[in-house]
Amino acid sequence: MKGVVLAGGLGTRLLPLTKVTNKHLLPVYNKPMIFYPIQALVNAGVTEIMLVTGGNNAGDFLRLLGNGKEFGLKHLDYTYQEGEGGIADALRLAEHFADGDSICVILGDNIIQGNVAKAAQQFIKQRAGAKILLKEVKDPQRFGVPVLQGDRVLKIEEKPADPQSPYAVTGIYFYDAQVFDFIRTLKPSARGELEITDVNNAYIQAGTLTWDVLEGWWTDAGTIESLYLANQLVSQTGANRMG
């Protein structure tokens, strides 16, 4: 399985911090934010990773990360997203890199206390379809929210005003090669973006999406408040723990 880290966007919710740099290069405790999702993939046994980025500071990732040697990678691939077309649009750029293999996708501002090694192994045994990881949160309306019926996900609603469950779909996804076929069928949302929620709903309609609840804490770091929280959590417990 290959890994894809999505680190594009303009980071407007973090202005003025992002006026002169990409948000994924901001510090979270003692490391740049981008280190955490890369390490999460490495801890799940992923050895081939592509970073999708964009904006005016894309070259800074190359200066910081090089060929990925610091993470034990033989090499690190890069590609560039023009504009802000959404998460699914960014993922579309990794099709050639994936080359028919399954992928683990993680958003570049997602930080976890533990690891997703168990979920990765379960997805490999699943052999096809998709797997998403859920986490109970206080403010699910900020995220994609699953509508659950027993063990089944009926659908995922994007940033609903009235969430039908307390769970957020975390920014960690496992997909087979069909993901790129689904992306090609998408139409832009009201925000003018190709939504990853629509990709997940396509897998639900196909009956091939599974889910687990992520253990340990999880946060994004895409707002001033969540960036502050991420710094606190990492300083208190560390991140990407294998125990």
TrEMBL record:
Q: Which residues form the signal peptide?
A: none
User: A GO molecular-function term, please?
Assistant: metal ion binding
EC number annotated for this UniProt entry = 2.7.7.24
Question: Which keywords annotate this record?
Answer: Magnesium, Metal-binding, Nucleotidyltransferase, Transferase
Q: Which reaction does it catalyse?
A: dTTP + alpha-D-glucose 1-phosphate + H(+) = dTDP-alpha-D-glucose + diphosphate
SUPFAM superfamilies from the entry? Answer: Nucleotide-diphospho-sugar transferases
Q: Which InterPro entries match?
A: G1P_thy_trans_s, NTP_transferase_dom, Nucleotide-diphossugar_trans
Q: Could you say which cofactors this protein requires?
A: Mg(2+)
Q: Locate the Nucleotidyl transferase domain: which residues?
A: 2-235
One Pfam family assigned to this protein is NTP_transferase
**Where would you find the membrane-spanning parts of this chain?**
none
User: What top-level class of enzyme does the UniProt entry assign?
Assistant: transferase
What domain of life does the native source organism fall in? Bacteria
Family per record: Belongs to the glucose-1-phosphate thymidylyltransferase family.
- What's the protein name? glucose-1-phosphate thymidylyltransferase
Species, as recorded: Nitrospira moscoviensis
